[in-house]
Design goal:
Elements: H1 7-23, H2 30-40, H3 52-66, H4 70-87, H5 92-103, H6 107-121, H7 130-142, H8 152-164, H9 168-181, H10 186-198, H11 202-216, H12 226-233
Helix pairs in contact: 1-2, 2-3, 3-4, 3-5, 4-5, 5-6, 8-9, 9-10, 10-11
Length: 239
Amino acid sequence: MILDIDENIKQEIERLTNEAFGVFNLEDPQPGIDLLIEAYHKIPSPRTKYSESFNLLKYIAIGYFRAGRIDESEKWLSEFLESDFNVRRFGESEYLAAKIALKRNNEALAIQHFIVANQKSEGRVFGSDPEDQEYLKFFKKHAKEHVRPTEFEEMLQVALKEIDNNNYPYALSLLYDCLNIQLDNVTVHFNKGLCHFELEELDHAADSFTRAYMLEGEEAFEAADSKYLDFLKTRIEIK
């Protein structure tokens, strides 16, 4: 659950953040970062439960990293990861964790973080800067099987595999891409409903299950747990 911050505190955080941006430079990052840290400490405990924590922690940890101060960046990484998890952002904290791991010559850990960052961001975490492209090249070399697919059959197979691994958010993002290619595929609609159901997004689950049922009837549910068809029967009339 994300908490709401007091409006007066929010305004003070914005003031300090803007001031930090005005003085920050890579040659001497500390004055700017000190202002960001001051802003972060304005957030009530538990700080990482507030959405404001994400950007502040990102600016602090990445600021230190870009300035080449890896030890300081790593000290802030754990809170950045926690904030990213709590506010459900886009894998930016794992991306930084991977880059720090590479600086520490821990390629195995870097690959693990890159995989998560790639999945959460749907590949967007790798930007267009030359440095980002070098990280993408490393990722493709060492974790080729985890690079987001673009062809329909491969996307669908990866989605089904991720469903088996209970990785429903990533599977769902792939299934949405599948629908952009084949709108009336019963396997896509059923498994999209399954993901929504397991994520407790029941209205979306009902919509997808209904589409699967309209395409193939109860046969669309035959190989799956009966709970999915039982759920659909609570939403539409099935004789």
